[in-house]
Amino acid sequence: MNDNVLNVVLGLVASAISAGLGWLAQALRRRRRVERVRAFFGLPAGSECLIVVPRSIGTGSHAHTVTRRDAYALMWLAGLVEECGARPELVAHDAAHRGLGAKTELCLGGPVSNERTAAHLAWGLPGVLITSGPGPGSNVIVVGDRDFSVDHDQTHVLLARIATPDSGRPVFLISGQTGVANQAGVRYLVAHHRELAREYGRNGTFALVLRVVNPEAYGPDMVELAADVTTEALRRSPAAAPAGSTAA
Predict the structure, then answer these.
(1) Which of 42, 73, 96, 244 is close enough to 169 for a disulfide, judged by CB 3.0 to 4.6 Å?
(2) Parent domain of 210
């Protein structure tokens, strides 16, 4: 083998080694990213996750229904769970009679339509009051001395992560004032979970109110942070009524 052939062979070997090392480095980075996502959501590979929803699928005319927008949100949640290598289990809100921490819970909908959400708010975020009623101005998220209501050009969603005792699996709440708000909250969680993990830690509790801007024109696409209400949400207000009470 002459020197030219040897140089070509050595170059090919070096290129193969370099490509292999590059692929390995990328694979390790991808795996670390996936592991961070799994840690934040409490979804190790092969685990199960509860997606807790109102019982009926319908148009939203009844308090205990999943609207078409909520169905879209469920697809996003299921995709997120499967991306982590876990298995989603859809459970009706009045059938999820189990303790906390054994499985990650993703609860969709407000405390009026989802009894499990109401229980989690009362236990983990006692400073949050979400009212609902038939008249205008009756659907309000109240946290501390701030209230967030629905009007013609905005709606809101409470997005929260609640840490459970003994480092158990977390609870996530997506409690919107409308089906569009629920969908917007899920999409925000999927898009910003890395920033949320950096800000609040992989095992932290947080409560955010997101504003959905002009949902009639933009749907769930225009979302901004209205307020970080974590401190107020964790503090029980003496005047607070039970979560999910109906406005007069």
Answers:
(1) 42
(2) 42-234
